[in-house]
């Protein structure tokens, strides 16, 4: 029996599964985020949202001891005999309510819906809902690719499966993550940041202080608000990590959720100490991940990161295998503004 099935069986107590339609399932959980999902600011760490989404996949796709008579979502268990599912890309949106400590984080509801079917891929949309307040705390799209177990190559969906579920595809729901190349050294426009009370930021040869992020336009007498800057330059920074045994999934590879963790760890640990202090305060608003190859336990990886020139508080990440020098994952993260963070944490 695969570990995935065994895990679902152990999680099933206190779970009610309802099939709303052939392509949609609702999981009502008597539990929510565990204690270890919360960080020093008493807010949920973003990769634990991905862990919860993964739990929902296990509970949807497999037989549950307390509900053995039910059919299985999307007949995925029938596919498992010949195929595996490899995560191709992920899009995560975290709403402010998830970081609001006045809002409980249990019990929760997960609603999963098949929204796209490609030649060998499927896109599942998940909403993480707090039913007591009718709030959506986060949403996540996971586009998986069907893999032939023998060739380890993408395989088309079987005809019977496509006939049954192909009708639920929406071409606009195909999840594509555009992988950004690492910027060339001669095209980088550097910035400066020193995190002190009277912080001086330099941007496009201009200077302003962090205490006063307003400038007066002498021509119009109006106030111009400068963007909320991350303490990063466009220059590429790198930080090395090792895939630990505790990061592995039921197949012995790095779990797909840990790559976001690696990026956020590298961002804080690989930045100068004063910048690191501010980066710890930041809250993830959204993340896009492209999975290119699998990481193995014990493998050393290099996380490279640089900020986006256009998207406010956006950061690009490349996760590269130190042995192969090949790109394993691309991640793009956008953070909430400091104003939003201070508002969300003001109830501490």
Automatic annotation (TrEMBL):
Disordered as annotated region, ranges: 180-221
SUPFAM superfamilies (UniProt xref): Thioesterase/thiol ester dehydrase-isomerase
InterPro entries listed in its UniProt record: HotDog_dom_sf (IPR029069)
Annotated Basic and acidic residues bias: 180-200
Entries under PANTHER family matching the protein: ACYL-ACP THIOESTERASE
Entry protein name: Uncharacterized protein
